[in-house]
Amino acid sequence: MQPTGSGELHIGNYLGALKNWVSLSREGVYDSLFCVVDAHAATSEYEASEMPTRIFGTALSYLAAGLDPDRCTVFVQSDVPQHMELAWYLSTVTPMGDLHRMTQFKEKSEQFKQNVNAGLFTYPVLMAADILLYRATVVPVGNDQVQHLELSREICRKFNARFGEIFPEPKPKLTVTPRIMGLDGKRKMSKSLGNAIDLFDEPKVVEKKLKGAFTDELKLKMGDPGRPEVCNIFTLHTALTPAGEVQQIDAECRSGALGCGSCKKRLTETLNAELGPIQARAAELRAQPERVLRVLESGAERARSIATQTMADVRQAMGMNVRAPQS
Ligand code: ADP
Q1: Where are the chain's structural domains?
Q2: Which of 34, 125, 145 for a ligand 1 pocket mutation test, highest count of atoms within 8 Å of Cβ?
């Protein structure tokens, strides 16, 4: 994730990706690495003096959400310069046409007309490097990153075809709610659109935001049958409420027995119960910043040791090694 704003995440990031990271790392099936992609964030104009706070805030959110540094590796992208090195090599097998097709590039270059930099254009190549550097097989992301991941797979295939089987093909892993819509119900939840519930919003703020949230374009009156399939509040229930209860909410919404106001109240309780422990852990970590910094330091060390090995293989495969035996 990019360190945006003051580094705090919203529940779209959490329900679309981070919650999945926590369960994947707890399952222990994979050796997992999670990073704060500060080098990616440099593609948008920013105040350098604010970047450390943003990076720290994002890392703290990861830990507060439940990533356990004893079970996974948490680090900052710029602490491992091999990301940038691999991105360069990967860019030599990446077709320009593919980069031009990326929705995120089109959207961002439209949104930030005064700063359409080359980094914004080659952003997906750096993302491919973030993944391939660790020979990752599974990448838990939200829906909006699936196109970039498809391109990472393509870059991986092109590199392997040209230089030998160095990388496994990474696959996306989505949650049950891969795209959380904003409170406006129109666009995806995003900090920059002002339609988000933040991970660290207080219970009263969550209540207020949900009260005003969009539900269904049909103006429903008390007792009208609802349409959970088009309602963002229902989507949030699916992400947070136990399955049996979700079925019940679905049925009661359809029959008109559960009105939007009561449905939102139930969601407020569930969401606040989910965020409470995260916010408590965040407060603890804020009081001991050195704990977060230690995690990032040892995370970077481990990430660098994997990255060093991968880059040795990459340079060897590409013939960038004058000391290799001459024939
Ligand atoms: P980036 O991948 O460029 O760092 P963000 O920082 O915006 O993008 O998002 C971090 C993660 O959160 C990504 O996996 C993204 O897919 C996910 N995400 C962001 N917004 C949403 C949303 N509204 N619904 C679901 N997932 C989201």
Answers
A1: 11-181+289-318, 203-283
A2: 145
The lowest-confidence range among 5-9, 63-67, 272-276, 285-289 is: 5-9
Q: Residue 134 carries which side chain, given as an amino acid letter?
A: Y
The finding on whether 36 has its CB within 6 A of some atom of ligand 1 is no
pLDDT of residue 176: 87
Is the Cβ atom of 124 under 6 angstroms away from ligand 1? no
**Topology classification of domain 11-181+289-318:** Rossmann fold (3.40.50)
Count how many residues are written for the chain: 327
Q: Which of 144, 175, 181 to mutate to test the pocket of ligand 1 (most atoms within 8 A of CB)?
A: 144
Q: What superfamily does domain 203-283 belong to in CATH?
A: Tyrosyl-Transfer RNA Synthetase (1.10.240.10)
How much distance in Å is there from the Cα of 12 to the middle of ligand 1?
A: 7
Instruction: Read off the amino acid at residue 244.
Output: G
Told to judge if 191 belongs to the known catalytic residues of this protein, a careful annotator would answer: yes
Mind spelling out the 3-state secondary structure of 62-111? HHHHCCCCCCEEEEEHHHCCHHHHHHHHHHCCCCHHHHHCCHHHHHHHHH
Torsion over CA: 33, 34, 35, 41 (sign): positive
Identify the helix (H) or strand (E) that includes residue 33: strand 32-36
- 19 flagged as catalytic: no
Q: What percent of the chain lies above the pLDDT cut of 70?
A: 99
Q: Give the pTM.
A: 0.94
